[in-house]
Amino acid sequence: MRTFKIAICEDDRDQNEHINYMIKKSCIFLSSEHQKFEISNTFYSYESIFQFINSSSKLPDIYFLDIQLSSKPDDKNGIELANLIRNRQKTAQIIFITTHDELALLTFEYQIEALDYIVKSNEEAKIQTKITQDLEKSAYKLEEFLEKKNNIFTYQIGNNFYRVNIDDIYYISTTPFPHRLKIIAKNEISEFTGDIKNIQDKIPGFIKVSQSYLVNMKNITSINLKKRLILFPTGEEIQFAFSAKRKIKEYLMAD
């Protein structure tokens, strides 16, 4: 099970408690047997989270930060804190919760790449929805980072994320249902929502042999160029498009 750790930094104790409550509601809604969201750290000042970040080897995955962390204008603020987090942790997902939406423009100067800005004055139901959506987006982005690092392909079914080693995949294909894809791998067959072109961009080592099939050429048993057939270890055969013949021959020659 993948656990996504969440940190909150808000100097106002009442607001901190309320944000905690709302995030916990979203955590319960999104958590399942395959993934879990939990608040791991709560901070009330720049100094306390600064010390934690500089002393801890295990940092949270997702941060909810207030922009104004003190009533004193010269004190460190949430934007400077986000900059510190980003320099230490490139994959951190940062969401600002603030009454000062105009300060969001400053994040571009720091090149923080915050995931979202939640304005405290919005209706509570809207804030709750945004928190849930941001946690979902954060999980997706973190899984993408993990894919690139560990040669993992991640796909989503409902609120759950599933991972498979790219080297174990035979092919990914379309299905009769729009935006529904099928993945065939060693010991795994699943269907999930997606677009085959977007998948091709995520796994550049695969060859799109037709409008319907994206094939891992490392996992084929044989190719019949005359009949335009690809055979897999499972015994299954698929036919590739005439337009893909050149790409396949180039791959075989390079190999």
UniProtKB/TrEMBL annotation:
The UniProt entry, under SMART domains, shows:
LytTR, REC
Which Pfam families does this UniProt record tie to the protein? LytTR, Response_reg
Give the SUPFAM superfamilies listed for this entry.
Answer: CheY-like
Which residues does this entry mark as bearing 4-aspartylphosphate?
66
Q: Ranges for the Response regulatory domain?
A: 5-135
Q: Would the keyword Phosphoprotein turn up in this protein's UniProt record? A: yes
Residues in domain HTH LytTR-type? 153-254
This protein's UniProt keywords: Activator, Cytoplasm, Phosphoprotein, Two-component regulatory system
Single annotated GO MF: DNA binding
Superkingdom of this protein's organism: Bacteria
State the function annotated in the UniProt record.
Required for high-level post-exponential phase expression of a series of secreted proteins.
Official protein name in the record: Chemotaxis protein CheY
Organism lineage string: Bacteria, Bacillati, Bacillota, Bacilli, Lactobacillales
